[in-house]
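Handout, section 3.2

Students often ask what a structure token actually looks like in practice. Rather than define it abstractly, here is a full record for L-seryl-tRNA(Sec) selenium transferase. The first block is the sequence as you would receive it.
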Amino acid sequence: MAGFRALPSVDQLLGALPALVEDHGRLAVTQAARARLDAARAAIRDGADGGVEAARLPHLLAADLAGLAATRLRPILNLTGTVLHTNLGRAILADQAIAAANAAMAAPLALEYDLATGGRGQRDDHLRGLLCELTGAEDATIVNNNAAAVLIALNSFGLGRDSIVSRGELIEIGGSFRIPDIMARAGTHLVEVGTTNRTHPRDYTDAISDRTGLILKVHTSNYRIEGFTAEVAAPDLAALSRQAGVLMMNDLGAGSLVDLSRWGLRREPTVAEAVTEGADLITFSGDKLLGGPQAGFILGRRDLIAQINRNPMKRALRLDKIRIAALEATLRLYRDPDRLDQRLPVLRMLARPLVDIAAQATRLAPQVAALLPDHRVAVTDCASQIGSGALPTDTIPSAGLRINGDGGDAPDRLAAHLRGLERPVIGHIHAGALILDLRCLGADADLLGALAR
Ligand SMILES: *Cc1c(COP(=O)(O)O)cnc(C)c1O
């Protein structure tokens, strides 16, 4: 039985594996080889055969290095039925936005430089004009995300003062974004008014004092209170605030720039309508219904936006050039609403006709069945969701594949198998089957190719 002497040295091992060195670099292969040789010596000490250990080294090393090289950020197929899935990165960007981001990464650009005068410019200037044009707002500033937009606005106008919110709007948005916590960190004192289901104008007026910084209205994006309810609508709250001489801010959350009913979706108030309603400040996300990269917008009066821009937090929350370029290209698409559903992937997926999705499901069912032996594949109705808190109780009729196997844990095992593919396929489990909602699938070959690997 061979012992330690059957093992090669690190140099011998590297010399025998030139392709690995070429692919991964000498340093990475040396480190992986040392670790594998240590493990082989430990195994031999425990009685393993040196020859067997030595023979296993090349393929173990190759697997280690392949594992280290594989990114966990590789593209997946989102067949969950949730179009804007926060855990899967929300909006897919338009080709125009991807090209703009690429160009911004590859060469210097006049990010904060005025090409006309050669003097200093402002990074937000690339977006302000478009945002004001598309929404009717007087001015705009842009930060890292909508959570940051709410944070900096509260801090700018509520620091050391009261911020008034209805008890029906003290929301939590996934993760750790809770209005009361954000208020505390913004340094503003939360004053809750009304009740969970009903808040009236006098609840607000009774709470207004000389300590009031602002009144905040929050779009209850991820739930809906139904039944015996009352809220003070944004126009009334804006009028009431103006009369009392305090600021009113409206956090829209998803904030769409276009009327979605044009594409058969339920009507949500647009950002432009929120501007008309008279709020002093409006906040919304860049990567929800807008369909761009992660960002947060604050629209409002010029003097208020200037005050936010002077807040030192602005520097900490500002956007980088890559996202500014992608946002500019995304906003530009809204100048041509007629072609928006062809160019903006979020809208293309949301507006995709059911007959189209159903035809794809019918085409794919037998082909997917052929790739998944021991499973039964059938076409099924699905209910897609917008996701990210937009129209939470609304679903959009869709179609997909229902996949069953033998045994109670078959759907979980299949889901795990599909997550482990080179291009992971993510569905959801419902009533004992794995469901693949095809709304967000592009070409048939995308799914067939992923499953064939
Ligand atoms: C989603 C949402 C937020 C947070 O926006 P992000 O862009 O995810 O930071 C804040 N408020 C409301 C009402 C939302 O729906």
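Discussion prompt for tutorial groups: The chain is about 45% helix and 15% strand. How would you have guessed this from the sequence alone?
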